[in-house]
Amino acid sequence: MSAETLAGIYFPLTANQGSGYHEIEACPALKPWIRCFWVYTEQCDQIVIPDTCMDIILCVDEAGRSEIFFCGINDFTFTSLNDNTRPGIRLIGIRFYFWAVASFCSGSLKNVRNTQDQMDSIFPGWAESLKQAFDEAESLEALWPKWEAFLLQHQHADPIPPVLYEAAERIIRRKGVLAIAELADELGLEKRWMERKFLACYGVSGKRLSLLVRYQLIWQACLQDHDFNVQDTVADYGFYDQAHLLNFFKKYHSQRLSFFSKTAKR
């Protein structure tokens, strides 16, 4: 099992973005780890949903002032408010798959959930180097190769045991419905050991990752499937009934599933 395997079966999506949002595909060598590079230029508030990814984000305004921060994996939807005191802000990001950060960072990821203030501890020395690459690039098109070269230079030996990749694959293929105790039994693992490894390597427990993957796959289905059916989703994702599904989705999203299931058919 490997990062390549997971990237081949799981492609998480963010909330629908406006015209100011643009994604850039990573080079082939980084595609199993980097979901995308991205740019956001709209001067408005934006909804951030649990996409099971983690991001390094460079915030730059038209005066040249910049800051950089790391967003750990989050498990709730929130609104990122536009700073009206700083016109011309651009957000420029590196989006990592949840299994990828451990191959670039320093130390454990067990405390990164729902945080935005651990750039220096998780990626020591990266902030100035990434900012310098941005300052030296004549355009965004020239920036991505610089950041890619930096990432490849700082990627280290994969610390994730192959069995943990297999655990993540089973969670994804079974749509987040598999119970963690059952998963540990299937893989012949001690449950506490597996949970410690999930936290250290993925930033969340196995149970929480399963719930987030289930939410994310439902989100993808209602956006992409023109035949999306709530009752079929109840059966496919192991819910007791329609109310259980709708309450689950609302817990992780700011709007009801019925709104998106209708717009998905337009």
UniProtKB/TrEMBL annotation:
<dbReference type="Pfam" id="PF20240">
    <property type="entry name" value="DUF6597"/>
</dbReference>
<dbReference type="GO" id="GO:0003700">
    <property type="term" value="F:DNA-binding transcription factor activity"/>
</dbReference>
<dbReference type="InterPro" id="IPR018060">
    <property type="entry name" value="HTH_AraC"/>
</dbReference>
<feature type="domain" description="HTH araC/xylS-type">
    <location>
        <begin position="162"/>
        <end position="263"/>
    </location>
</feature>
<dbReference type="InterPro" id="IPR046532">
    <property type="entry name" value="DUF6597"/>
</dbReference>
<dbReference type="GO" id="GO:0043565">
    <property type="term" value="F:sequence-specific DNA binding"/>
</dbReference>
<protein>
    <submittedName>
        <fullName>Helix-turn-helix domain-containing protein</fullName>
    </submittedName>
</protein>
